[in-house]
Cytochrome c oxidase accessory protein CcoG (Undibacterium rivi), 470 residues
Amino acid sequence: MKHIPITPVPMDEVELALFEERKKVYPRTQKGWFASWRWVMVAFTQLLFYGTAWLNWNDRQAVLFDLVARKFYIFGIVFWPQDFIYLAVLLVISALSLFLFTAVAGRLFCGYACPQTVYTEIFLWIERKVEGDRNARIKLDTGSLTARKFSLKFVKHFLWLILSLWTGFTFVGYFTPIRELAISVGSFTLGPWETFWFLFYGFATYGNAGWMREQVCKYMCPYARFQSAMFDKDTLIVTYDTERGEPRGSRNKKVDFKAAGLGSCVDCGICVQVCPTGIDIRNGLQYECIACGLCIDGCDQVMDKMGYERGLIRYTTEHALTGKLDNKAMWKRVFRLRTLVYSGILGLIILVAAVSLVYHVPLKVDVIRDRGMPKITENGEIENVYRLQVMNTQESARRYSVEIQGVQGATILNNVDIDVKSAAAKAFPVRVRVPANVLQTGSNRIRFVVKDLDAPDVSVTEKAVFIVPR
């Protein structure tokens, strides 16, 4: 068989980049209803974060997580490691709240309360005050290095660093009393772990909010990746009305755009210029969208200037847009079975947690039996030794009594009243003696009852085992 050579078909070379080159986003200043609400949330979250650390309660810091003493103070309540269940409940409440808000109105948390969003907005505000608005910043960055450019950049980064370090200082102030921390910083006697977290959290804020900005939302935040699992066609999302807006194009205000075959979109690009992540909402819903609503404010202002109806870009649902539903019908579908179930479960958990906190007993008791063999006296009485740890979670010193229940004739040989300081724990031995022939050989159930002598309604019953040797 004759060999026929095969001539390869030439193919165009295609160069593929594994990583997209970052294009710096220069968000434009925008005023409006959604922009105002964003600043309300910035003020609220930062007042809460920076201010709470300085509040006092009963001559101590109101909110303090004392890891060394393993005590967590939250206003009038003291939590111990044994109260870990409350942290679990808090995490469940946070997760369900996120699911509920996302199912109702998309990424509201991202747009208004996420720390990355909040600090990016603050850093952008500083940048605008120092370097100017969008066009001025673009011109400054593309220009050559001059004394003016260097001084503006230096001032901006200096202010960023001051704010970042203050943020790191406040963060550590929730774990070390903030007033003591301030003295340590001023006298350069800060401990090693405080120094690490102070600098780590500060420079993390500086890097994320000052340099990375929208990159954190687009590439690092996992929420952006799984949000679609919580969206459906009745979720409120920031949407561009394609049917009304297309075909887009510039025009004179006096021109009848419908007669000219144009849509309402004048292709001004304001919606792109104000977007913190730099996307074009007219291309449809994208995972980078943080639902801040700034494009709605910008578009509405353009519509007002042109004399057009507002709402070319608006919060709406896919069903409302395609089915041309009015607001009443849209909201009826928003509060559907899915969101009602989320709301019901969330409300029930919050109610149970609130009731649990209201009836929270400010006393905790642990009982551990000594590992040694029980002692038998000359009269045949059996003696077991226990270690009781009593934790007083109240803000005042308390005195407690200890009793034995469940065994006839059982007595406590040593002192049964114990004084415990405020928000402290005390361990002490207890010798329990039981008459002969009262209990069977082997393990027997007994109960220790610890009562507050000044508040008889505060008591804890703890089970234990009494061993009778064979």
In short: The longest strand covers residues 455-468. Residues 232-324 form one domain. Residues 147-172 form the longest helix (26 residues).
